[in-house]
Specification:
Blueprint (H helix, E strand, L loop, with lengths): L1 E5 L9 H10 L4 E5 L3 H13 L3 E5 L11 H10 L5 E10 L7 H18 L3 E6 L2 H8 L6 E3 L6 H10 L1 E5 L9 H9 L5 E3 L21 H12 L3 H15 L3
Parallel strand pairs: 1-2, 2-3, 3-4, 4-5, 5-6, 6-7, 7-8
Length: 249
């Protein structure tokens, strides 16, 4: 199985070699570690060199733009084709907090999309309380990617799928109030679903409250199998194929 979206950093984990060993022992063969700012992007470049199961996505997250400089885009383009960098991410829009600069978020999102388009890279998209703007921007670009931690409606999921995007499903699907994503999973084909954790965040039940990591991916696969009333092995195989189709591992 493949975790298509997680965050591995010394800010979150004290012993990364031990963490990677735990993930391997759980049957996870690949993880895509996402950057959010320059510091985490540099960590991603180091991690992909150190660990065989680690692949990377680099980009600038919409809530991490306070220290963003135009030169950061030059750096991004210089490294987007580095070995084992399989996507541009985590990028997108986030309107959740007060006093956010929507204009700045939109500009930097679009500039990163231009880089992805130029280099034919898939993107990993963050969209929080901004689903309409995210869609309206993405429909102007002929790109592929994943809608990370999708929280929109079934109608929106189908619209993104038509654009060429896959739906990222993580630990939230195990929560009691996760009605939207459960409805989406019930009503879209398995070939449009990716497994992810967003570790160290959004730990699935029954481990909610503990720090998340990629070893919990089988729990998410099991829950999807229950929702769709299908075999868990089919979920694992199909989502693995979906990941390999999207990302050039």
């Amino acid at each position: 199985m493949i975790d298509t979206h997680c965050h591995v950093s010394l800010d979150y984990y004290d012993d990364i070699p031990k963490l990677i060993e735990k993930i391997k022992n759980s049957g996870i063969t690949k993880i895509v570690v996402n950057g959010c700012d320059m510091k985490s992007n540099l960590e991603v470049l180091n991690l992909v060199k150190q660990y065989d199961i680690v692949y990377g996505a680099i980009g600038f997250h919409p809530t991490e733009l306070d220290d963003f400089k135009d030169n950061d885009l030059i750096w991004l383009e210089e490294h987007i084709n580095d070995d084992k960098i399989v996507a541009l991410g985590e990028i997108g829009l986030d309107y959740h907090y007060d006093n956010i600069d929507k204009t700045k978020q939109n500009i930097i999102f679009k500039k990163q999309l231009e880089i992805a388009k130029k280099h034919c890279k898939p993107i990993i998209v963050h969209s929080r309380d901004s689903i309409s703007d995210t869609y309206n921007i993405l429909k102007e670009y002929n790109l592929r990617g994943s809608l990370h931690c999708f929280s929109g409606s079934l109608e929106m999921a189908r619209m993104f799928i038509k654009l060429g995007y896959l739906i990222g499903v993580g630990g939230v699907v195990t929560y009691k109030n996760a009605k939207n994503i459960v409805n989406v999973i019930k009503n879209i084909d398995l070939e449009y679903i990716l497994l992810e954790t967003d570790a160290p965040y959004l730990t699935p039940e029954p481990y909610r409250g503990n720090k998340n990591d990629s070893s919990y991916i089988p729990i998410i696969a099991k829950k999807i199998a229950e929702i769709k009333n299908i075999n868990q092995e089919l979920v694992e195989k199909t989502t693995n194929d979906n990941s390999c189709r999207l990302f050039d591992f």
